[in-house]
Amino acid sequence: MIWLTWRQSRAQVASVAGAVAALLAFLAISGTGLPTFDDTYLQELVTDGFAKGIFFLASFGVLFLPAIVGTFWGAPLVARELEAGTHRLAWNQSVTRTRWLAMKAGVIALVAVVTTAGLSLGLTWWCGSLDKAINAGQTYDGPLRVGRIAPPMFEARGIAPIGYTLFALALGVTAGLVVRRVVPAMAITLALFVAVQILMPVLVRGHIGATSQLVTIKPDNMTGMSARVGPGNVPQEAHDLQVRADEPGAWTLANETVDRSGRAHSTLPDWFAFCVPGREGGLGLGPGPDPQKSAACFARAEREGWRQRITFQPASRYWTLQAIELAIFLALTGALTAFSFWWLRHRLT
In its keyword annotation, does this UniProt entry include Transmembrane helix (predicted)? Predict the structure, then answer.
């Protein structure tokens, strides 16, 4: 059965494993030439085009690998035989239904875990100094500034991708058993897996031990606001103010302006339009207000009790969330596997 499973799946497995091996080789080559960590590490890294290219290729590889495994390895694994009717030949021999499915799924699962773990942990090793720089507070106006705890970087590193891969494979096998057609099973697998990946950070991960803090709105921590000043320098609207949390590398979940009573407001009093760092044009408001008006606006906001409530996942919870998410997806994998064997024994003819 092992030999037969390999013969049936070797083309798909070899192509993906070859691509992963190439990415790991490039990670190893570029990783030895990365700059030594210091206070300017991030600025030095972003000037290295080869290193950035490898980083993005490997990150996208880990992000897409579970979906590829589920869609192209898992869904056709049994659906192909059920669609062609060749499963009856195996069942008429000495191989039981349970052993038939266990061997086919087990071999592919082992290869999938080794492939995903190799690429994910290889990328995690490569990003060690990058993560250290971001968690130390280094900034850069580009995609490399995103901390590893925030999507989509979270899904591309650590041990959680192993759970994603096993879940995607189990989902593909289950869809193939139920639908018994290769193409529909592949479409269902891809759609459901993508939906779960989108919903997981929104409905689950973001609510596991999130932290909130109230921050005073100041010129040096304000990062954005939509505002408009009309003719005669008269403020007309202000809304969606954003403030930076003093938590480098954190994943910001909510950034709300609240009044003295703690009620959140997206639309602010018009005078907030002057709460822009004086003579700075980074918020889309031209040259900015007079420094005295700017200082008076921030002072008024503090005096009237306006604060910013920031909800976030601190960078220190990264490995805890990785372990929790791995456990969740392993549980989902177990449930799908149990359902697949039940379906195989009781509903499949």
Answer: yes
